[in-house]
Amino acid sequence: MPEPSATARAARTSARTAAITGVLGVLFALLTPFMPVQQATAALDWPQGGSLDPVTAPLVSYVPDRITVSVPCTAVAELPGGTGTLVATGPVDSPDTLRRGLSIAVNALPDQRRLLEVVVRNTPLLTVDVAALAAPNCGAIVFTGDAKQVKAEVTGIAGPDGQPLQGSKENGFDYRPQTVGVFTSLHGTVADATRIQFHADIDTRYSTVPAPARWVVIVLAVALILASLVALHRLDVAADGRRHRRVLPDGWWRPSRLDSTVIALLVTWHVIGANTSDDGYILTMARTASEAGYTANYYRWYGAPETPFGWYYQAFAWLAHFSTASPWVRLPALLCGIATWLIISREVVPRLGRATRSRFALWAAGGVFLVYWFAFNNGLRPEPVIALGALLTWCSVERAIATGRVLPFAAAAIIAGWTVAAGPTGIMTVAALLAGVRPVGRRILARVRSGPLDRRLVIAAYVAPVLAGGVLLVPIIFSKLTASAFVAKTLMQSDVGTVVDTKKWYNEIDRYSALFTFTADGGVARRFAVLVTVLCLLLAGAVLLRKGRIPGASLGPGRRLLAVTFGGLLLLMFTPTKWTHQFGAFAGLAGALAALTAVAIAPTAMRSPRNRALTAAGVFLVLGLSFSGPNGWWYASNYGVPWGESTVLALGGIFFAACGVSVLAAGWIHFHEPQPAPVPGPVRRVIGVAGRQSPLTWAAGAVVVLCIGSMVATTTLTQFSSFSNGKANLQTLAGKECNLADFVLTEPDPTSGLLLPLDGNTRDGLAGPGTTGVSPDGVPPIINATTSSNTDDSSTSLDAMARLPQDTTSGRTATAGINGSHMRLPYGLDPARTPVLGSYSQEAQAPAKIVSKWYPLPAAAADQSLITLSAAGRFTDDELYLEYTTDRTAAGTDPKVAGKKAFIDIGPKPAWRNLRLPRTDLPADVTAIRVVAVDDDLAIDHWLAVTPPRVSKLVTAQRLIGSTEPVLLDWTSGLAFGCQRPFAHRNGVAEVPQWRITPDQNLSPVTTEWEGTLGGGPLGWTQMLLQQEKIPAYLRGDLGQDFGDVMRLVPYSPARAADLTLGTRTVWGTHTEAPIRKDKTDS
């Protein structure tokens, strides 16, 4: 046989290298999660420092892996008064300690007997008469617990029947107690009699770093995959004999007028535009990732990591090290937007054919792309990078087909892998890969048939690097997480689910249904973006099917663009959630599709006037459906936005009428064909002007103008004196970075702001002449609150998620207040200085009225700009109001009423809330005020209760909370309160927050449920450890807007943070930890 040439030998070497390194790269990549890691270990041991002082250690997993408690029998005698708690895993006074934790306590019975009770999760394990514990041979009360069994026993003595004193539960239910620390009624230092031993092993399965062996596998996997790609490149070069081509051709960076317009609008929207729904959620996860050692979900699922999704969030973690200002942390979205547009205009559109490069098509692409970006992608959600990744995947596939090389297809696999890892929506990139499999596969088979090498070797040489590129992300993303932990957390997340049920593929209709709700989900821009994409698919597809190609457009790329967009929408069915946010991933593809459709419906391609009239009817229908929704945006982005709560004028009806006229015109033209239908001169001129651009361009331009115009008006007009995204972001550029925290005014000490009546008698200040039918205890003990009356539903609705009921408990106290009231007062008001009167009665109903005494007003001051009053019940502006006088006031005088003014009441009714009135709404010469409240409705649920008026000193939320104290920021508030520091968590234990900031009253029940016990969120342990005390707070310049609540978190029992016993151990990726306990019920 003749010796192979040098070229053949080189090709064989490259093929073998590509095949071997590709296969090994895949194997090493998939092996990574199973390799060993160094896991941090943590345990809670108590007592600490020789002291019996309680300690806090809120476990992020709620329960320890294992727990052992041993209490000497002699400790019982050391309890103050002979009763109390020996050991508990929650505060002694917390009602959740018995319900969900462990309590070993001595309780007294009515017959004076004392019993030792060991209770775990409301289940008594052991009850022993304290007299039996005084026996000399009594050893200790011992409790042990793990996922299979909990057991309590008293060692050294037996029961009256001679049996061991013990009790246990092992019926398949996980009784492990929730642990937020160790608490006791004992005091002082540890003595022999009180030498308690408490030990709990903490779940740290996610606190891992790669062990040396895993590092070796990671490096080998990445190196082998890169080597296989290099070998693949050599095979491509050997096959076609061409040199490497430039990735970016000449002129790629030269901007056009359209480029400047699109980029300028993207930058403008970045500053003044609305944000996305999950920005606070994602930013908080990113800010706490460094301390935790991994990116945890933070608000749910027991601190489980986001892996394999969420690598994109690491960018925000890096940015947050420098600043948490909104324009700064959202820079990746802006950069993705600019990059996506440049790729559309320079890579995608040129590949679609000569006609699509026209200004006609490019402006249509720009308009649709901008609507998508404005509606979905101006925040921290992963859709911007997914939109960019989807477009890059399509471009790489097209380059592979155009050049006949396989390396670009491997690059597409790499990009698709990373796009999927950015978020589940990235699954849409699979459509682009599938679209390229057939032509690329044919090219590979052609090389197999024409080459001298072994067929199997050649196929492996081309296929292995592509597969290796697809798994390149695996060793990087799974550098820390073990396979066992990943499986456990995935099963747990599936089991726990979300507040709404996790959706199946056949529930995809729910995503589209949400577009037509009258909420931010169904805003004008969101509806238009999705509906115009569907219209483009129909129009371009119809032309392609009717004519076999779109005149002026390339057949192959055009067909694949349609297939990839349609396939992406189909693949979206397989994502586990059905939020409308995920449509933002189609921004790039939809922009390119708009350019193709503009060519398809241009007069040169669609020559029939009838068909063009029907196309116009379709565009008008999309506009009509879009403008039938509100111009609504998420949360604080919607404050003061024109038409944010209503339809935009009557444009929806106008566009529907235009749709009908276009259909009639199409019919008129149809019955006149083949003769041209008569067209009036004015109509001909309008058509001539409109025909200079595609109807898609005009329609998208209208929505872009609405978005930009409404946000400019919000920034400069409607919210000029208050908060808006634009104003806050512009202030950030001037150095004030605290966003909404600089606009929220609070009353740190509302009691100090109480006004004194003229006669100085605080006790009877509310009970002036004419007061009747009320009493100090005229408030129901439990108040069921409804939603806020002054909150915009379109900005606070969580997609299609049903609102949950919210209860506000008033309650009673044993100690009477200043006027004899036993009602618990809200907002930290001191009952010893705050009288209260109410008209509620469970017995006979009678008319009631409150006319307070006159309260002199203090001198006006910048930090005392509001008159406030805490009230509860159901009433209108005519039933509770303020009267004022301009007479000189002194004790013993009877000033004349000069006028009256209603308070601003934002609800929720009938809960306790703070009515507010700017002092500037009163005449400048007002000297005193009084409160008038009337309840002449005899329905039992119609009542009211009031406290005296206040003029408190106001400070901003930023001054009150600062930037150093730990805060529980509900997930809707994380971006708006960027200067506040979220509580950290490390080694499975969370830092105890001192404050909580919640959204408005409509959304607060949803965030509370999401973050609560049943979801494994932080509220599951904060409510066991802390009490919430609302601070009166108001949005400066927009007092009728419900921004949410600022709450001070007060411990049930003062305690310091525990010192953990830390260590490390090396475990393999298959190492199994204790099961994650999932709360099926709140117990």
Automatic annotation (TrEMBL):
It is a multi-pass membrane protein. Keywords: Cell membrane, Cell wall biogenesis/degradation, Glycosyltransferase, Membrane, Transferase, Transmembrane, Transmembrane helix. The keyword Membrane applies. It is found in: Cell membrane. Pfam families: Arabino_trans_C (PF14896), Arabino_trans_N (PF17689), Arabinose_trans (PF04602). The chain crosses the membrane at residues 215-235, 328-348, 360-376, 409-436, 457-478, 528-545, 557-577, 583-602, 614-636, 648-669, 696-717. GO terms for molecular function: arabinosyltransferase activity. Residues 38-205 form the Arabinosyltransferas concanavalin like domain. Its main location: membrane. Residues 210-671 form the Arabinofuranosyltransferase central domain. One of its GO terms (biological process) is cell wall organization. One of its GO terms (cellular component) is plasma membrane. InterPro entries: Arabino_trans_C (IPR032731), Arabino_trans_C_2 (IPR042486), Arabino_trans_central (IPR007680), Arabino_trans_N (IPR040920), EmbABC_dom1 (IPR027451). Belongs to the emb family. This is Arabinosyltransferase. It comes from Tsukamurella spumae. The lineage of its organism: Bacteria, Bacillati, Actinomycetota, Actinomycetes, Mycobacteriales.
